[in-house]
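Re: beginner question about structure tokens

> Can someone show what the tokenized structure looks like for a real chain? I only ever see the sequence side.

Sure, here's an example I had lying around. Input first:
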Amino acid sequence: MIRIGIVDDHQLFLDGIYSILSTTENIDVVFTTNNAKDAIQQINKIKTDILITDISMPEMNGLELTHHIKKNFPDIKIIVMSSFRDLGNRSIIDSYLLKNTPKELLINVINDLHYHNKKYYYSEQINFQEIDLKKNILSPREKEIVAAIAKGFSSTEIANKLFISINTVETHRKNIFFKLGISNTAQLISTAIKLGIIDY
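And the corresponding structure tokens:
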């Protein structure tokens, strides 16, 4: 029996994955939750073989959760299911799927990962010239702020951490979004992973 935990802040997706896996032979969904901190609490109490998680979540995001799990529960395999279509560093996760993955593929990936340690990564062709250009556009300070945002720090916390004003943080944030051609934090994390500014 493969014991699986699922964490995602989109209830519709969470319910859908639970519905698929809970009726699948040889799979036991031991918990579902909509936030990473609760997932850690559940893992502390319940034996879990595989964790399925998203990247972008409130409070504690998938980046922090994945690093925590791999550090404290190294035997747990991690499958990231996300709407982001590119992934940079694959070293810390065991498989990567898009949220629109067919259920047959998801089940196959789970079985291959659990029984054969066979990993699977969805990917698209990446324009490395574009990546190098965008990566070099950001200043060292802007990269620091990107990393802090990815860890879930607020503008006030970033200002205190870097000994700068909140207005300066907000100005940097606007410049970062403009340079990378993005409009929200989820896109920022996705782009930062792809550019290698932050590691997954």
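Each token stands for a local structural state, so reading them left to right follows the chain. Residues 125-129 have pLDDT under 50 and may be disordered.
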